[in-house]
Every structure is written in structure tokens, then in C-alpha cells.
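In the previous chapter we treated chains in isolation. Here, by contrast, the input contains two separate entities that must be folded as one system, with a combined length of 884 residues.
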Amino acid sequence: MPIIRQYDQYRPEMKNNRHSLNLNIRGISESPTLTINELSKKLQKSGKTVYRLGLGQSPFPVPDAVVNELKHHAHEKDYLPVKGLDALRQAVAYFHREKDQVDIKAKNVLIGPGSKEFLFLLMLVYYGEVLLPTPCWVSYAPQAKIIGRNIKLIHTSFETNWRLTPQQLSDFLAAEKDQYKPRLLVLNYPSNPDGGTYVTEDLKKIARIARKYEMIILSDEIYGQLHFKGEHVSIARFYPEGTIISSGLSKWCGAGGWRLGTFAFPAKFDWLMNSMAAVASETYTSVSAPIQYAAVKAFRGGTSIERYLMHVRRILEHLGEKSTRILNLGGIRVHPPDGAFYLFLDFNSRAAKLQKRGIQDSSTLCEKLLLETGVAILPGEAFQRPAEELTARLAFVNFDGAKALAMSEAIPPGEALPKNFGEKHCPEVLHAMQKIADWANT
Amino acid sequence: MPIIRQYDQYRPEMKNNRHSLNLNIRGISESPTLTINELSKKLQKSGKTVYRLGLGQSPFPVPDAVVNELKHHAHEKDYLPVKGLDALRQAVAYFHREKDQVDIKAKNVLIGPGSKEFLFLLMLVYYGEVLLPTPCWVSYAPQAKIIGRNIKLIHTSFETNWRLTPQQLSDFLAAEKDQYKPRLLVLNYPSNPDGGTYVTEDLKKIARIARKYEMIILSDEIYGQLHFKGEHVSIARFYPEGTIISSGLSKWCGAGGWRLGTFAFPAKFDWLMNSMAAVASETYTSVSAPIQYAAVKAFRGGTSIERYLMHVRRILEHLGEKSTRILNLGGIRVHPPDGAFYLFLDFNSRAAKLQKRGIQDSSTLCEKLLLETGVAILPGEAFQRPAEELTARLAFVNFDGAKALAMSEAIPPGEALPKNFGEKHCPEVLHAMQKIADWANT
């Protein structure tokens, strides 16, 4: 077959070429939070002191009661149902009813290997446009890109506490040619990357708009139980027929590495939930069995879990306040957080100074900060902010969570922590803040 | 805005409609193996005796040494690297070097939540046509459909032991207009659904063709360690530069529900492996940490794991032979298996009789068999065979694996099991075979 041979001569050697890559995936690199984590490890290995404020991982251990359940179920080896272990789906439904006062039933719950996987499956299955208020979590936009979904960003501002306002959402829709296009609005509160949350009045107004325009709301409430006052309010209370609640073990239970996430659907969303389960059955199949058995304990809650949560919240609130104060004193704009363990820093008041040092975008800002001070944080650009805006996210998690927990346990519940608790038990966090403040002013 | 209101009147109520589903996903239901499993459970609950030969799950417990490692690492909570725990990647590379004599390095290994997830990611990332010799595993084709990849089936036959012959592959390519189209050839051996494997000479010839036409081979060797003689040969030995080896804990280690799979790539496939890792970092993130730590033990192997494997193989070989004999006596064509725990049954010699009973396709065959005898097996159609062909897969796994293992342990290694071992310790398996044989002849 001479034609084939001739063709062959002009072909680049296949084994090394990238021409057979899906175009949606080219240029996607590993998620920036994971990348900065691995880079920080390398710097540490080379002997440099690194303040790892990049990766958003809970510093606290998994509660003993939950670890013990995992040991107890270590022999479980059967494939569990695609939608999840029945007892766990029931526990998660109970969790949402108790904690969020939303009427979720077990049959409307899915268990997956992390809520991130579910967000991806949702975007894959739902043929709609994705609306992202920014700053937003690093993975929403790359996920949509991989699948080939259209994204619309709505930029919020420091002045509105980095929250989407009902007016902004109305204005956005009014300017659209097709107001009724299938849309998925992604809200995340308490928020990664800024620790802020919504006031209830705004949730009600956003719910009203979503109802009117028949948008699906993906309400990412993975930090709900880390609201410092324990007063998290879900938008599902005001838009139960159109809100999917995303949650999981990773943040409030300190079990990020265990990989277990949950989605709770409106009762009439079987068409969407079952399609996600069908794709799940052709991909990850089910979540690791021993992990699911252990998670039942976590979602059922009880005294020991509540006590754990109380300490975790108290410590995080204390550190959030202290960190905010240090940064504000350094002229960096940042709001004190309502929950979670993030701060979103706005260096724009220092723009003139920074520009003289060659810093004109958030990526350069974070790179120089890491090289000059050893403090690793993530550029605002990774959270879909304009590249030239000098913003960045930090996670104040670089402390020994087990030790801090033990110290908090010695202080009666309900009391505030002593003023010097952070300096005493989480000194690296506050050193890092001071380094950032000093660096911004040199 | 009167225009919007008018539009609204003609719109169906969104919450219940399926118009916003990705078209690739409509009509995909839960994987048939999982569906039959859940249906069988229901029949059992209603009091019927069900012989569950549908789901391909190992009946054996996870080796104690591996379960103990999971207990020992139950507290591990950190997010592990996307590509996997370093120690585990090393153990998997060592496993392939030792067992398969293929030069795999740790840096070319990925760890994921099941090899099924990896197959999906591979098809998502690689923009090529998927070649499937049939009968093939149930999930390959639906995965390609979800992603929107083109599939080409190559039907093999009972006469060639359900194996793709080198000649068939050559003929297929000769008939194609573009021989050099990017292609992914999926081979699975020992095979699900038929327990057969390739002779080495054919692997060499297929390797030669794949090299010539620059095809990627996805060599699904998840049952490699369940070759009854321990003589599994990987095609990667003959086509190392273009073969990805898929493996995992699910089958040989009895840990299907744990969800851990592995891919081992050719050294120059960084472009593909890194793209898969990038998508992984935006989806499942990493495999559950405690499970990864425990898996190190399994892949490192050692005396106790080898002993476990010896017993598992001996029991499965015994049952495979006995089952084949009963079915053959009943006039059902089936080959004795080389490995794994499947038989692919050909009822076509009974076609005239079956047709009189209203059975003209494999789905009706399996449905009637289940209803009339309580034996649950899967239709050939689910394995991409023509619907009207009277074939079906069974998994001879409906016995107490822990008990059978204990009984085998009392018999010296190297010896054959007593002739009545199956009747004594796995009677349900042989009852089911007799029921199938009798049913086909009524």
C-alpha cells in the first residue's frame, strides 16, 4: 500500500506528539491550589522556611470517634450502591434537616468521592450556562472549560464584601438576550476564597430572582459548619425547589484526604440526580466502602462531634480576627471572615509602590511574596479576578491543629479564647501575616 | 418586559423537564452489572432464592495484612498528591516489573479511584477513536458515548476463543480509509466477560500491527493476577512504547469496594498522563488517603499475599472447570476459563427450542432465566454482542470466599483440590450451573 507509506513519511512521530489531546484539556494544568502545595513542599525540602498558606486544608485531625469507625469497618470490601450507602444517605439528609432546616430526604442525596467530582458531573450532565460570581473557588471555571460549558463571570467587589448582590444578578439578566437560557448559578458561602457569607435578606432576594428565571442554584455549603457563630443559613430554605446543596467531610470534619462529598437535591430533580448517578456508575462507581461507613458517624453528629466543632470554630474565629487586624494595620484591605479559614487580600492601596518593584499582576505578586518572604498564597487570578488586580487568597491553616484543639479543650465552652492564644499556640500564622504586612510596605 | 412573559407562557415548567440534559447522557442508565445486582437484592428481599451470578465481584475477603494496614492508617487525613502517594506509585511500578517483566518506573504510574475512572479520563483526554473487540466489558462503550467518542466494534467469535485475532485487526485496518487515525485499542485479558486470555504469539502479532499503525493499546490487566497458572503475559512486553497497563486492587485483592485503580504508562506518554492528572485534579483530586497507605502493602506483595493468591487461583480454577463441564453437558457452548471468574455462555445450539418459548434475544433470555430459575446472569448485548445472539455472561462468585479460602488453606500448596471441593464448599455455584443447563433443555 504505497499511499500509506507516503503518508507515513510526513507524519510526526506519534508517541511524543500532543495532537491527539482533547482541545478543551490543552493548557489546563493541575489546579493552582495543588500546584502551590507541591511547590511549597519543594522549597521546604531545599531548607527554606515556608509559610504554607496556599492549600485550603483543615489543620484539624479527624475526630477520634470517626477514625475509630473507619478502623471498625476496615474489612468492608463490597461495592456499595452508586448513590451511596443507605445509612449514610439517611445521615446526610438528617444533617441537612437538623443543621439547615431544609426538608431533604435520603432518596434525594448522592454520596461521591468529593463534592468537586460532583460539580464536574453536574456540569457534564446539565446542558446549561454556568454563572460564577467572582472571586470564586479555583476549580469551577476549569471544570466548565474541560466539559466545554459556557461560563459567565459576574465580578463582585470589596465594597459588597465580595458578595453577589441581588441588583447585580438582576442587571446581568436584564442585559442578556435570552433570560430563560438554562443556567446554573454557583454560590459558595461561607466562601472560599474570602471567608464571607451572605446576609439572609440577600439570599431571599437572590432566591426570588432564581425562581423567576428558573435558574438552578448550586449552593456550595462545604464550609457551612465552619460558620464561626454556628449560624449558617442555606439559600435552599428560600428556594427549595431549585437548589442543590453541596457538602462533604473535607472541611468541617478535617477529612479532606478521605474524599467524601455529598449533594442534596430538590425532590423533583430526579432527572438530574439519576443522570449524575448513571455517569457515576460508568466512572468512579461508588465511594470507598470503609470511608462511607465511617462517615455515617460524622453526619449523625452528637455530643463529641458538636464539641469538636465548637473548638474548631472558636480557634478559627480567633485567628481570622487577629490576622485581619495585622493585615489592615499594614494597609492591606481585607474583611474579617464569617467562617471557613480564608482571607481575600486586596493590595491595591499599595499598587504604586508595588509597581515600582515590578509587580503589576496578582501572579507576580504571589511569586515575589513567596520568594522574598517564604509566604505561599494564591493569586486572585486563580479565583477568576482580572489578572492585573492585586488580590490574593490566603488560608490561615499553617498551625498544629491537634495541639490547638487540645489547648482550646482546656478552656470552658462559650468563653472567648485568651487574647494571646494565637501567639502562643499558632504563632506561624501570625508571623506569616506580619511578614505579608511588612513586605507590602517595604 | 412583556416579551419575556409571553415567552414564559409557552415554556414547559423547568423543574421537571429533561430538555437541559446533555444529549450524550440521555438514555444512559446505570451500568447493567450494577443494575442486575440491585434487582437481585430486591428479589432476595421478597423471599426468592436468587443465585447472584451477575455482578463481577471477588468473593474473597481482603487479605488480613492489607486490612490491618488500613486500620493502622485510619487517621491519615491529608490530601495526597494527584498522581498518588509516592510509596504506592513505587510499589505499583515494582509490581509490574516483578509480575509482568515490564520496565515501569514510579513516575509513570497514576493512582485513581478505580481503573474505570481512569478509562473514562483516558477517553476524555485522548482525542481518538476507540476500538473494542467484543464481547467486551460493559462500561467501555457507555464511557465513550458519554464523552462523545467514536466507537468501532470488532466482533470476535466462539471459534477464536472470543479473542481478537491479528488477522481480524489487519483486515479491519485495511478496510479503513484512514489507517493512521488516532486510535485506542482496548484489550482485556484474562477477560471479563469470558475468562479467556491471549496466546503470547498473538500478543506479539497484535503488538506489531499496533506499532505499525501507531495505535495506543489500553491493556486492561485487572485480572492479570487471577490467571490460574500465574502465567499472565502482558502485551506491554512486546509494545512497551505504546501500551498503557490498567490494574488495581479490586479483583486479585478482593477489594472492589475500596476503589483503587492504577495506570502504568510508557515512559514517553507524559503528555497523556499529565493531562489525565490535570483533569483528575479538577475532579476526584486524589484517592482516599487511608486506602492508598493500605494498598502499598498489597502491591509490595510478599509471602502472605502470594499464599492468598495461590489459594484464590486454585479455587477459581476448580470452579471454572466444574462449571464448564456442567454447562457443556447441557449443550451450552462455553470455553474453560484461563483466569478471572467469568464464563461467556453461547445458547445458540438451543435457539430453536428457546425461540418456541419466546426467547429471541439475550436480554429476554436472561430475564426469563432469572424469573424461572432465580439465576441472575447478564445478557451478551451488555457486552456489545448483537442483541439477537443468545449469549450471556456469568460470574461464578456466589459462594462464601472466606470459608472456601479457609478450606483450601488446609490442603498443601501445589496439590489439586479434592474433586468434590466445589460440591462441598461452594455448592450454590454448581447448583446454579445445573439450573442453567436444565433450563436450557426444558
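The first strand of chain A starts at residue 51 and ends at 52. The two ends of chain A are 71 Å apart (CA to CA). Compare these points with the single-chain example from earlier in the chapter.
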